[in-house]
Model the fold of this input.
Amino acid sequence: MIQKLRNFLRHESGSASIEFVLIFPIFFGILVSAIDVGMITYRSAMLERGVDITVRDIRLSTGAIISHNDLREDICDNIGVIPDCLNSLKIEMQQVDPRAWHTPLSDTVVCTNKAEEIQPVTTFQNGLDNELMVLRVCVKLKTMFTSVGISQYVTRDEAGEIAITALAAFVQEPR
Done:
């Protein structure tokens, strides 16, 4: 019996399987985290790009008044990679006095929360010629993985979604 136990302990078959079982979850977590963070970063970059293109169109439109819905549709058309963009995008636009920065914007970005009832339009003021306007956009997204890797540490709302924001400031060109 002792001889059989010694033979069993000296036998090396299966050692690669044990290493695989110990190391595979770590590499899998790193892979899943990289994919998830990559998708979040890509969508964030596309949100910034969509807001920048839309702001450029507004700035050069020489006096055209744009509505909240038109602005939201333009941003979503320029993004292209955010699912259900029109329902998950929230826009806040207001005029800021460039000479009086003592009243800054609030730190809280208004974002949709699909777990609550839909809220009406937030602060949305159309700018006149030569007025400094600040546009903040927030979109809620579901991540691919919620409980694996880095994704489990991301702040989420009640619906399990994360918020991605973009900020742009512009001056309406005079006519």
